[in-house]
Amino acid sequence: AQSVTQLGSHVSVSEGALVLLRCNYSSSVPPYLFWYVQYPNQGLQLLLKYTSAATLVKGINGFEAEFKKSETSFHLTKPSAHMSDAAEYFCAVTQTGGFKTIFGAGTRLFVKA
Amino acid sequence: SQTIHQWPATLVQPVGSPLSLECTVEGTSNPNLYWYRQAAGRGLQLLFYSVGIGQISSEVPQNLSASRPQDRQFILSSKKLLLSDSGFYLCAWSVRSVNGPQHFGDGTRLSIL
Fold first, then answer.
1. Residue A72 in this model has a pLDDT that exceeds 80
2. Looking at per-residue confidence, does B62 or A86 come out higher?
3. Which conformational region is residue B110 in: left (phi greater than 0), alpha (psi within -120 to 50 degrees), or beta?
């Protein structure tokens, strides 16, 4: 069975600091991995996706994530946080041939001025 | 381009009243469709998904039901709402037969009084 674990329900960084949001997955077959962002009272928006083409994936708004099979991780990073990055972030995994996506519990990112 | 519409944006209903939330997708055919619920400060709970007209899979036993009367229309219903049905309801779609991302509507905030 697939699962996704996001380490840290809340992460706080200063504006301009590195953003690191952690995600570990469990999947018996090669996974498809995604990061989504959710702003208050809105739906989820796709940030980036890993579909086995390249281990380092670049997304929107300056975010990127690296797929590490040996660590079963797909951590999300951004070199310099902006105030507008404050939101909730979800890591998700879909199994090859599957209809369903498993979402992590989410990490709320706070950005301090 | 593809778009997804969800309405209403907010809804306040008394306990025991019926519910109908509607979701439509434009610009694509034969999508997979999904209903999620997001309780305050919590992750996404998959309620229903559909891979075709009239085909509904339920993930969680509850007093909610879903229907797909047309290819790009997905409806979430209840005959009698409970207090525990309060939450943020999200509709999503994905391309069928491709392990791609899901695309979300803006959600409906449902409050039960």
1. yes
2. A86
3. beta
Contact A103 B107 (CB under 8 A): no
**Any CB–CB contact under 8 A between A59 and chain B?**
no
Contacting residues of A for B92, CB less than 8 Å apart:
43-44
Distances (CA, A) of A64 to A38, A56, A77, A79, B60: 17, 7, 5, 9, 34
Q: B31 touching A, CB under 8 A?
A: no
Are the Cβ atoms of A90 and B44 closer than 8 angstroms? yes
Task: Convert the pLDDT of each residue in B14-51 to its tens digit.
Answer: 999 999 999 999 999 999 999 999 987 678 999 999 99
Strands A31-38 and A44-50: antiparallel
- Token pair, residue A87, equals 């939101």
Between A98 and A33, residue with greater pLDDT: A33
